[in-house]
Amino acid sequence: MALRIIVHEPDPVLHQIAKEVPKITPNIHKLLNDMADTMYHAEGVGLAAPQIGILKRVIVVDVGDEHGLIEMINPVILEKEGEQLGPEGCLSIPGLNGDVRRHQKVKVKGLDRNGNEFTLEATDFLARAFQHEIDHLNGVLFTEIAERVYEVPRESRD
After folding, report:
1. Residue 94 has what DSSP assignment?
2. 67 is in an annotated binding site
3. pLDDT tens figures, 141-153
4. Could you say which of 79, 83, 133, 144 is catalytic?
5. pLDDT value at position 154?
6. Is the model's pLDDT at 1 over the cut of 90?
7. Helix segments in 42-141, DSSP class H
8. Nearest CA-CA partner of 88 in 16, 35, 144
9. Can you list the positions of beta strands (E) in 45-114?
10. CA quadruple 137, 123, 151, 40: dihedral positive or negative?
11. Cα dist. 35→30, 47, 54, 129, 134 in Å?
12. What is the pLDDT of residues 87-134, one digit of tens each?
């Protein structure tokens, strides 16, 4: 288990566009493992490589549903439909949440850790998590697109 340090706003790396991964190497496997360990340790539901200071298009997501841990390299949203407005937080912006309007359903394409392309259709919370993490790869934070940003009460953070 290797935990990485989560970068916090206003670190400039959070506002940069991550680069595509041209080749999957053992370093990418280690990155995926470390990202999952870091996300679980921080009790998050998603993590993008820029959040640990690495400008690569790599995300991990686990919203606690039947999909379990989803690792995706070079993710792209192919289709989007519907609309949902709901609360979001971010491991890189502790203490703040926001009401963010997202698509209700998305179809996402990417590579798994072995370089195999796959697509996944996600709805509701999983769709929100994918959109949030892919935004990170494009240098966009939820606070920039939220309709309302508010502090999380201290007792909710413990």
Report:
1. T
2. no
3. 999 999 999 998 8
4. 133
5. 73
6. no
7. 124-137
8. 144
9. 46-48, 58-61, 70-81, 84-89, 96-102, 105-111
10. negative
11. 8, 7, 11, 15, 15
12. 999 999 999 999 999 999 999 999 999 999 999 999 999 999 999 999
On whether 90 is known to bind a ligand per the annotation, the reply is: yes
Residue 154 belongs to what H/E stretch? helix 154-157
In single-letter form, the type of residue at position 40 comes to Y
CA-based nearest residue to 90, from 133, 123, 138: 133
Distance CA 129, CA 105 (A): 11
Looking at residue 155, what is its pLDDT?
65
- Residue with tokens 């929100």, as numbered in its chain: 128
Beta carbons within 8 Å of 126's beta carbon, 6+ residues apart: 61, 63, 65, 67
Q: Is 133 a catalytic residue?
A: yes
Q: What residue type is 16 in one-letter code?
A: Q
Strand partners, 89: 97
Task: Please report the pLDDT score of residue 158 as a whole number.
Answer: 45
Closest CA to 51 of 103, 2, 11: 11
Alpha-carbon torsion angle 113, 26, 42, 80, nearest 10: -30
| 103 has binding-site annotation | no
Instruction: Please say whether the beta carbons of 35 and 45 come within 8 A.
Output: no
